[in-house]
Amino acid sequence: MRIFTTLPQNDLNQVSTAAAAAEAAGFDGALTMENRHDPFLAHAVAATSTKRIELGTAVAIAFPRSPMVVANACWDLQTASKGRFALGIGPQIRPHNEKRFSVPWSAPVPRLREYVQALRAIWRSWETGERLRFEGEHYTFTLMTPNFTPASTGQPMVPVTVAA
Length: 164
Hints:
Blueprint: E1 4-6, H1 15-24, E2 29-32, H2 41-49, E3 54-57, E4 60-61, H3 67-80, E5 85-90, H4 94-100, H5 108-128, E6 134-135, E7 140-141, E8 160-162
Parallel strand pairs: 1-2, 2-3, 3-5, 4-5, 5-8
Antiparallel strand pairs: 6-7
């Protein structure tokens, strides 16, 4: 059995100490969630404050963010953590998408499936240098110029867990 804890998100000045303490205490990982604060930012601090524990979101809300934006955040965290970051992502409910984030609602299962496929296509393009060509019903990505292409991480592809 693996044991995870959460990172403080309300004060980034506490993240480094909390992440190091979690690692020293033997936790297997540290997670963040998307409530009042960005779920990715604390991991940037934790990635540079730890060496062993896994880091991940549980969960980040997908639809208010383009897959390209999430791909960039995860890529940077995977690089900073030397391969210890995992993305937990979910759709959130319709009222939050429409009224809180002002994004259109559509059937969440096929849209989230396509979202994850887009993430993987983007990451594959960055890792291998192959041309980015992803065309789906909800997302299309066909432009990736050298100026916007991150360097290969040399790490495994970011694992993705989907929440319903």
